[in-house]
Amino acid sequence: MVFILALIAGLLQDVSSPPPDPPPAVRGDRFEIVVPQGWKTLNTGGFVLLQHESGASLLVQRITRTANLTDYARRQAERIMAPLGFAKLSDSLHFKDTNEEWVQFEIVGNRISDPHQLVYRVLRRNTGFFESIYEAPQTHFAQLLTEAQGIVSSVQAIIENPPPRRPRR
């Protein structure tokens, strides 16, 4: 009987405790993303640069509208892989629906003698275009890939009103 009362008390305590705080949002240039625990914000403003305690990094930034998402993504992915040693670029992955479109490339290469893996993604969402680069040592890449993709998927454009116009005299 004491066990049942303790179990009920524990369940009631769980129900009455407030839900955990949502992860904090970090703002960039007219956008914001959700940053879960374990990631540290290194830069905000024009772009957001995050670093995980494991050494992985994630860059998210707003880009200007582009006519051909696939061509733009390929050029940028090739630019990103240029400084890497023995770099290889995967075939592109492409997703499109009525509200969103993205093109993604995976890049494998070396930073000095340390093998790294990167995911470059260009995203078109209703109100904006964004690019992201997730990079981690190859040994830790898969552990945080889903979390990094979740951060990128959380991007929300912030519509800002133009500054008020001053009347001419």
What does this 3D model show about the protein?
By secondary structure, this protein is an alpha+beta fold. The protein has one domain (22-157): Mog1/PsbP, alpha/beta/alpha sandwich (Protein Transport Mog1p, Chain A, 3-Layer(aba) Sandwich), CATH 3.40.1000. It has three helices and eleven strands, in the order αβββββαβββββαβ. Strands 3, 4, 5, 6, 7, 8, 9 and 10 form an eight-stranded antiparallel sheet that branches. A three-stranded antiparallel sheet has the order 1-2-11. Strand 7 and strand 8 (100-111) form a beta hairpin. The longest helix is centred in the first third of the chain and has 15 residues, at 2-16. The chain is globular. The protein starts with a helix and ends in a 12-residue tail after the last strand. The mean pLDDT is 84.
